[in-house]
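To assess whether ligand presence alters the predicted conformation, the chain was also submitted together with iron/sulfur cluster. Input:
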Amino acid sequence: MKILMDDPDVGKIRRGISLSLLKAILTPKSGFSLRSDKRYSLILYNHIRKFFRGDGRGVFTSLFAPTELIYAFGLIPFSLEMFAGIAAVIGIVPAFLGRSDALWMSTDLCSFHRAYMGIANAGVLPEPAFLLATSHTCDGTFKSFSFVSDCFKKPLLLLNTPYEDTDEAVRYLAEQLFQAKESIEEITGKKLRDEDLERAFYYSNRARELLAQINELRKESPPVVYGEDFMKLILAWGSLFGHKKGVRLFEGYLDELTRLRGEGRNRVRAERRILWLHLNPFFDKSLIRYLERELKAVVVFEEVNQVFWEELDVKNPWESLARRLLSNFWVGTAKRRLGKIVKMVEDYSVDGVIHFSHWGCRQSNGSVRLIKDTVQGLGVPFLNLDGDCIEERNISDGQLRTRIDGFMELMR
Ligand code: SF4
């Protein structure tokens, strides 16, 4: 962080970020309990390093942007939310948030957006070819991506995801996806080849299938692994779907889970089974470890790891991609999300539900009251924790632990 404050040399800053990331992965402090988790971090590290080469093939993407399209053009998608999350893991977010504050960005905005706007303004990222963003899940993406697009003077391709999942909405979004493809051809001077799109769809579908199998295994009781190891999988969105490294990532998790399950002796002791909603603090695992290891309340599933979409169909690419975007549980009214939560409560036989209300996320936090009423209506205890996924100043570890302790009493 000091180098970000004191030394404006971009090359040094990039090397500093790469080294910090490597240190976070390879030193004993990393505390990975799964080999696949370590492999995931290395995949992300290599992805970032490739992007930092700055060979003009990088594309800034929002979390749910259709990265298959980017890979089909031989480009490298780089999710800005993912990078904000990784910056939190290696402890450099405060410097960027400070920069965002100095630009008069409102502090009640989601800190992911504030962080990546600060990162873009700091000039530490290589120039992208263009930016690709969807309006879901958060409306703020349009504004923050417009800011980043201005910083780099690069075109921003926006996909306006309707709120309704109807045939008309599919057609509207499919047309936008097709237009995005045309714009990319114009920007890159390269025509999209059918076989490249087919390959990207194949990898995406394979990753989807593997994630679905992992999710099935996680229904078992007692659980095979701790939830801690899965909570950052969300960062794969916006960067890895549509490429073989996404497949490798999920293969690694599935193989390890299957092996541990087969050995049978390493089962996790879970006195309570928890469903975790929304995200969690990326900069510090101590809260989750306290919950899972000390209190034996194991997170058996996370809302963000749901496979909510159908396989992509290369014969009907634009409509198929549109359907995937529209089937996201965060698109539309809270009713859709509530339906999924009820199903997860049943499928994973949970004893309690925890929602982590990330600072400034109107998208998720706005439904907390409805979620609470629905979950409690099922006779399942519910806890809402206020905090921040990437900004330590917005989180009070002591208070959160006290609330978790009270929640444990309630579940008992
Ligand atoms: S935390 Fe909420 S507001 Fe922030 S990026 Fe995620 S969905 Fe959007």
